[in-house]
């Protein structure tokens, strides 16, 4: 039971109003006990708490009013809160049980500040040792809510006693307090392990439940201990279904963590899960077990009983069980649709379920498990059902329809009709966008669907209220429309936008028209007439676009040598990732120097700079750099701002940071390798983790003896490195142009240390020179390869020159597994795996892996790797490379041969 | 995360800025689905990664929201505990007036059932004793 919550209550007035049946004359409101309640008056009433003769009934009423006010969102000023708190503590004098219970609640609600807590601790400590059990339980709960770590050690002894108290309410209070406290004070709570262990064996169901949750929290980082805990309890008798569910979760966690070494079916824990499926009269336990089994990587035979159990729950009379079952089956259907097909009859019935959430989950499950013949019926059913459900459910349905259509492309007609009729219905932006995106995907993947889909789009933009979607569709029409059998039919719809829409849409429509003019010669003269009309538009952008297209397409302004150059200029792709392009444009400052698109990085991969940063850990190195769109863009900006490196040209690639020190050493250093055509720049990110030291004049002495092709040309040392403020050292090397030179670099950090007085933060004047050895690292061939994915590998492969192909075979020797061999080769090449081929199916004897990338010099490379197992674990590999440059194909073979 | 929600609204683990969003989301959910709902009929929904179980008891809407281990099944236990406790305190499905009359008691029941987002007690008889500071009777 991990704690997910931090405190804080909020009350909002009138929450219960929507469905309050009001009496005709609103009498109820008038006679509400809180009618006309005012904070000031209630605070006056609270003075009764100071009476020497306490009236328990009256005081209880005042506390109730205060609680009501606080729950309604009323806040007390600091002074008011303190006054009320002090007054409330007076009430400990009363022996009235009802009042005492309210006092405990009131103190928790007031959350007194640390200087006030002291007032109430003695009363609470007294209650904690009281003979009255319930005083003890409540005092524990209040104390644990308001105290801090130092006070906790004082009451620890009592808490340990309370955990094993024979009164279950006291034990539960202490255990739940432990669950809350373990977050902030793990070391203290860990010491209660023995008592908690005893509580888990308690006869009380709730004490077991709370004990188990706390024991798991205490041991959560110790895998072996968890495994022991689970194996002990699965054999014993856990009474509470809630605790049983916890145990199921912990058991499945153990199975997951040890699944590498054993098969699921053999694990005793798996038998435990299966037995939980069969437990009588414990729906919650059955369902939890079924859910956990479906989440595991099990065989169909192992999965079947779980599915069967879920199937039974689909017809339960309890909506919660139906919901839980269908939600689980829905998840299973995403990865293993065949396993769920047996439940189709029950799912069909659920389509009529009164609870729309259940019906939506049923339909989306059916869409995943259904076969081609049932699609038309399903789509018909959904259509009648869509108007009843909220947008977020509709989006789920639309996405399910899209994947179904891609699975059964022959059925595109009915599904496109469904999507386009949904487009015409009421709905918010997110929903409409989901539909438009789905139709775009279908048109792109199913050629037959193109013309119908485009016409649906044309109808939609006639009446579309979302500028973003209109622009998106117009752009898409311009891309696909000219290549249809009769492009002229779209022109009317597009030109209507120029007449009827806002400036953004009009500008998009002008571009779309121009594309038709450029690509369809027969339409060109008519398009020109339309474009000329746009020259009188009220908006600059629209007129500018019209002028540009008319001048360039009409040949009045010469662009390039022929018509193809004009089209490339107007409509060609930028050949750089748009995110990088946008980031570069944002940092460009208008000056004499024009923006140079060739300086924009082509690397698509975006990895956050502080990838290693974990909570509680000191940030490493590059923390000083602001978070970028893509790391390489920000690196490019940072490096080009350093005069020494500004002439190096475009940054080809920046590696991930490589740690050069172990975790938690005095100085944390990692290196990022920046690759240029003729140079490399090594960026050492350093952090000083010793508070008592200031480092000055820090530099890295690099020995490039094992990297002959590199010669150091300049370095940028770091002036000073105060505690916990990361800094960077740069060293640049020259290397032969576009040659993927490799080598090993050994490094020593050299600096002057000065002692710092931590109380004043001032450093001593004199320092001592010192050195610190950090790890070696290598520049490998993979550093010269950019991971760039291709959307359709087969097309890309076939479009490459056959002459550039180089094929060879390699024996990789005995390997741990086929998957390990595949990932090793991918790492050596540093290329992007395509189409999910980096994943090797379990027990596979052979595997083909497709890789793509861009090699230094902007050479596109594609690789096909075919692996086979011979003998026990002997792996053989066939490597086929095609690239823009046959020499690079050879180079790839050299890399693999030497790797 | 559990939030119990009648005239009393409690959030645990929900950032302050998201609370209003939650409030309007739940009100909308209730207005779409609780109309004509039977007394204590259980409704269930999910929103992003959280589960929501809600019901109408007398004049009062009750919503319980949770995530992770507080899935729909665990929340059903919680809502059952809350409805039984409310009925027990009010002696019948409450009108708005009755609910407010018993406000103090109901606050105490909620404090016993859910404590800072963790389920602590589930049985109404036990809760009834606890709010009177009487020790529970174990079966």
UniProtKB/TrEMBL annotation, chain A:
Residues 634-780 form the Coatomer gamma subunit appendage Ig-like subdomain domain. It comes from the Eukaryota. Keywords: Cytoplasm, Cytoplasmic vesicle, ER-Golgi transport, Golgi apparatus, Membrane, Protein transport, Repeat, Transport. One of its GO terms (cellular component) is Golgi membrane. GO terms for molecular function: structural molecule activity. GO terms for biological process: endoplasmic reticulum to Golgi vesicle-mediated transport; intra-Golgi vesicle-mediated transport; intracellular protein transport; protein secretion. Residues 40-553 form the Clathrin/coatomer adaptor adaptin-like N-terminal domain. Residues 782-896 form the Coatomer subunit gamma C-terminal domain. It is a peripheral membrane protein. It is found in: Cytoplasm; Golgi apparatus membrane; Cytoplasmic vesicle, COPI-coated vesicle membrane. This is Coatomer subunit gamma. It comes from Eleusine coracana subsp. coracana.
TrEMBL record, chain B:
Its main location: cytoplasm. It is found in: Cytoplasm; Golgi apparatus membrane; Cytoplasmic vesicle, COPI-coated vesicle membrane. It is a peripheral membrane protein. The keyword Cytoplasm applies. Signal peptide: none annotated. It comes from the Eukaryota. Keywords: Cytoplasm, Cytoplasmic vesicle, ER-Golgi transport, Golgi apparatus, Membrane, Protein transport, Transport. GO terms for biological process: intra-Golgi vesicle-mediated transport; intracellular protein transport; retrograde vesicle-mediated transport, Golgi to endoplasmic reticulum. GO terms for cellular component: COPI vesicle coat; Golgi membrane. InterPro entries: Coatomer_zeta, Longin-like_dom_sf. The zeta subunit may be involved in regulating the coat assembly and, hence, the rate of biosynthetic protein transport due to its association-dissociation properties with the coatomer complex. Belongs to the adaptor complexes small subunit family. This is Coatomer subunit zeta. It comes from Eleusine coracana subsp. coracana.
């Amino acid at each position: 039971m991990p704690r997910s919550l931090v405190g804080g209550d909020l009350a909002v007035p009138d929450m219960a109003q929507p469905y309050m049946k009001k009496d005709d004359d609103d009498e109820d409101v008038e006679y509400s006990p809180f009618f006309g309640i005012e904070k000031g008056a209630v605070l006056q009433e609270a003075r009764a708490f100071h009476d020497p003769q306490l009236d328990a009934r009256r005081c209880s009423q005042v506390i109730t009013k205060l609680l009501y006010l606080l729950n309604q969102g009323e806040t007390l000023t600091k002074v008011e809160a303190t006054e009320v708190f002090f007054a409330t503590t007076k009430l400990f004098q009363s022996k009235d049980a009802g009042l005492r219970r309210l006092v405990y609640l009131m103190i928790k609600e007031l959350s007194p500040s640390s200087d006030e807590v002291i007032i109430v601790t003695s009363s609470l400590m007294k209650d904690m040792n009281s003979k009255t059990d319930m005083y003890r339980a409540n005092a524990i709960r209040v104390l644990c809510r308001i105290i801090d770590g130092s006070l906790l050690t004082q009451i620890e002894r009592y808490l340990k006693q309370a955990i094993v108290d024979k009164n279950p309410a006291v034990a539960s209070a202490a255990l739940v307090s432990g669950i809350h406290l373990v977050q902030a004070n793990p070391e203290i709570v860990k010491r209660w392990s023995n008592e908690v262990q005893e509580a888990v064996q308690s006869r009380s169901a709730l004490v077991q439940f709370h004990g188990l949750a706390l024991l798991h929290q205490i041991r959560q980082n110790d895998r072996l201990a968890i495994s022991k805990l689970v194996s002990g309890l699965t054999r014993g008798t856990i009474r509470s279904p809630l605790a049983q569910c916890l145990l199921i979760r912990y058991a499945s966690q153990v199975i997951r963590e040890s699944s590498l070494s054993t098969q699921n079916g053999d694990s005793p824990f798996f038998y435990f899960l299966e037995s939980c499926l069969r437990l009588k009269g414990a729906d919650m336990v059955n369902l939890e077990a079924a859910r956990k089994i479906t989440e595991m990587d099990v065989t169909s035979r192992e999965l079947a009983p779980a599915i069967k159990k879920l199937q039974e729950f689909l017809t339960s009379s309890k909506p919660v069980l139906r919901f839980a079952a269908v939600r689980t089956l829905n998840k299973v259907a995403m990865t293993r649709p065949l396993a769920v097909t047996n439940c189709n009859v029950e799912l069909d019935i659920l389509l009529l379920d009164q609870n729309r959430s259940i019906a939506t989950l049923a339909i989306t499950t059916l869409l995943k498990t259904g076969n081609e013949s049932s699609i038309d019926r399903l789509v018909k059913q959904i259509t009648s059902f869509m108007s009843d459900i909220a947008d977020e459910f509709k989006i789920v349905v639309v996405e399910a329809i899209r994947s179904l259509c891609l699975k059964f492309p022959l059925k595109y007609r009915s599904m496109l009709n469904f999507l386009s009729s949904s487009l015409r219905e009421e709905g918010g932006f997110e929903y409409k966008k989901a539909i438009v995106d789905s139709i775009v995907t279908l048109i792109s993947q199913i050629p037959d669907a193109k013309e119908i889909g485009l016409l649906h789009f044309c109808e939609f933009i006639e009446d579309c209220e979302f500028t973003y979607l209109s622009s998106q569709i117009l752009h898409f029409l311009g891309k696909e429309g000219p290549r249809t059998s009769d492009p002229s039919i779209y022109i009317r719809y597009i030109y209507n936008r120029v007449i009827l829409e806002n400036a953004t849409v009009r500008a998009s429509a002008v571009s779309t028209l121009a594309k038709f003019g450029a690509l369809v010669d027969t339409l060109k003269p008519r398009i020109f007439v339309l474009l000329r009309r746009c020259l009188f538009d009220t908006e600059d952008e629209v007129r500018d676009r019209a002028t540009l297209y008319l001048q360039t397409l009409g040949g009045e302004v010469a662009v390039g040598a022929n018509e193809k150059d004009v089209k490339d200029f107007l409509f060609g792709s930028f050949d750089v990732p748009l995110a990088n392009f946008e980031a570069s444009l944002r940092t460009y400052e208008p000056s004499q120097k024009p923006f140079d698109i060739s300086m924009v990085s082509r690397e698509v991969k975006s990895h956050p700079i502080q990838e290693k940063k974990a909570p509680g850990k000191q940030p490493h190195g590059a923390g000083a750099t602001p978070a970028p769109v893509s790391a390489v863009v920000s690196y490019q900006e940072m490096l080009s701002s350093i005069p020494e490196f500004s002439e190096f040209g475009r940054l080809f690639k920046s590696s991930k940071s490589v740690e050069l020190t172990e975790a938690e050493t005095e100085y944390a250093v990692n290196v990022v390798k920046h690759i240029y055509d003729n140079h490399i720049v090594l960026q050492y990110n350093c952090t000083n983790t010793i508070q008592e030291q200031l480092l000055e004049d820090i530099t890295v002495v690099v020995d490039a003896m094992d990297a002959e092709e590199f010669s150091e040309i300049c370095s940028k040392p770091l002036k000073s490195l105060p505690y916990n403020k990361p800094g960077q050292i740069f060293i640049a090397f020259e290397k032969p142009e576009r040659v993927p030179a490799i080598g090993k670099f050994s490094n020593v950090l050299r600096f002057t240390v000065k002692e710092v007085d931590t109380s004043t933060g001032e450093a001593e004047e004199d320092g001592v020179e010192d050195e610190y050895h950090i790890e070696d690292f290598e520049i490998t061939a993979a550093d010269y390869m950019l991971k760039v994915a291709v959307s359709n590998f087969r097309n890309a492969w076939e479009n490459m020159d056959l002459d550039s192909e180089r094929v060879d075979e390699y024996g990789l020797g005995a390997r741990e597994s086929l998957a390990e061999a595949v990932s090793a080769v991918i790492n050596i090449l540093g290329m992007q795996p395509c189409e999910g081929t980096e994943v090797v199916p379990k027990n596979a004897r052979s595997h083909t892996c497709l890789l793509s990338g861009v090699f230094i010099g902007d050479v596109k490379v594609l690789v096909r790797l075919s692996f086979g197992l011979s003998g026990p674990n002997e792996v053989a590999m066939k490597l086929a490379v095609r690239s823009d440059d046959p020499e690079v194909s050879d180079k790839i073979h050299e890399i693999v041969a030497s790797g | 995360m559990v939030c119990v929600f009648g005239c009393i609204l409690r959030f645990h683990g929900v950032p302050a800025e998201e609370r209003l969003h939650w409030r309007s989301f739940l009100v909308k959910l209730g207005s779409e689905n609780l109309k004509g709902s039977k007394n204590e009929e259980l409704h269930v929904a999910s929103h992003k990664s959280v589960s929501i179980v809600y019901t109408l008891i007398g004049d009062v809407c009750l919503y319980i929201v949770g995530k992770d281990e507080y899935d729909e099944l665990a929340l059903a236990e919680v809502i059952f505990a809350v409805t039984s406790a409310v009925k027990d305190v009010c002696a019948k499905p409450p009108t708005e007036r009755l609910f407010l009359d018993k406000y103090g008691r109901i606050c105490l029941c909620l404090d016993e059932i859910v404590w800072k987002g963790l389920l602590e007690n589930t049985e109404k008889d036990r809760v009834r004793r606890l709010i009177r500071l009487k020790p529970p009777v174990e079966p």
